[in-house]
Specification:
The chain is α/β, with parallel strands linked by helices. The protein contains seven helices and ten strands. The chain binds adenosine-5'-diphosphate and magnesium ion (MG).
């Protein structure tokens, strides 16, 4: 369902990705590991169409991301790709509930449908009692769970997460990992997760290691 073909990306004369190709199947949870600076974030941003490669293609459900026009691509991104960042990137002036709903409103779904789905996700992620709090009033683990609910609101084809647990203590990390698996169980989501954590990477269906701009194991 997600396919990257011969991706290259350089910053000046630093070649970050050299002909990287990979395939992720539907319902898979794949981890991406590699040293700091190996190009993991760069790869994830290209897979999510947030960053343009110098060459190569990314296909999601057969859609060639970089052949779309800007408007079409932003709609596709909003509806088909969920992002979870290392630092939650929640909007500080909105509540947890509102943060989860916003991508749904942007997608143009009916307000009542979006809000019902948001409630369902907040309940599933154990956030109902905190839903009317703003990010500054939430713990790190809660903020990251809100960010996950937000990523899921439009039922995306794939969820891309960049070191989502990097900022959490070990207990919250463990809970977050379990969450990815139970979400897959419940909704059949597909995840690509960049992580530093070998323990978690070992739990995933498959580990992709980036080294010197290439994939060394898949
Ligand atoms: N916008 C940018 N401009 C120049 N160099 C960058 C930029 N983004 C990342 N890099 C460099 O590309 C390399 C890979 O970065 P990144 O993908 O963030 O690695 P990782 O996420 O694996 O730590 C690093 O050497 C980084 O300094
Ligand atoms: Mg990174």
């Amino acid at each position: 369902m997600l396919e990257a073909n011969l991706l290259t990306k350089s910053y000046g004369n630093l070649q970050v990705l050299k002909d990287v190709s990979l395939v992720v199947e539907k319902h898979e949870i794949v981890s991406v590991v590699g040293a700091s600076g190996a190009g993991k974030t760069t790869l994830l941003q290209i897979l999510g169409s947030l960053l343009q490669p110098d060459s190569g293609k990314v296909l999601i459900d057969g859609n060639d991301l970089f052949s779309m026009g800007e408007k079409e691509l932003s709609r596709f991104r909003n509806q088909q790709i969920g992002f979870v960042f290392q630092f939650h990137h929640l909007l500080p002036e909105f509540t947890a509930f509102e943060n989860v709903c916003i991508p749904g409103y942007i997608a143009g779904a009916k307000k009542s449908v979006v809000e019902k789905k948001a409630q369902e996700l907040l309940q599933l992620l154990d956030l109902l009692p905190r839903q009317h709090h703003k990010p500054s009033q939430l713990s790190g683990g809660e903020k990251q769970r809100v960010a996950i609910a937000r990523a899921l609101i439009n039922n995306p084809s794939v969820i891309l997460a960049d070191e989502p647990s990097g900022n959490l203590d070990s207990q919250n990390q463990e809970e977050l990992y379990r969450l990815f698996f139970s979400l897959r169980e419940k909704f059949g989501h597909t995840f690509v997760i960049v992580t530093h954590d070998d323990h978690f990477a070992g739990m995933t269906d498959r580990m992709i290691r980036l080294q010197d701009g290439s994939i060394t194991s898949a």
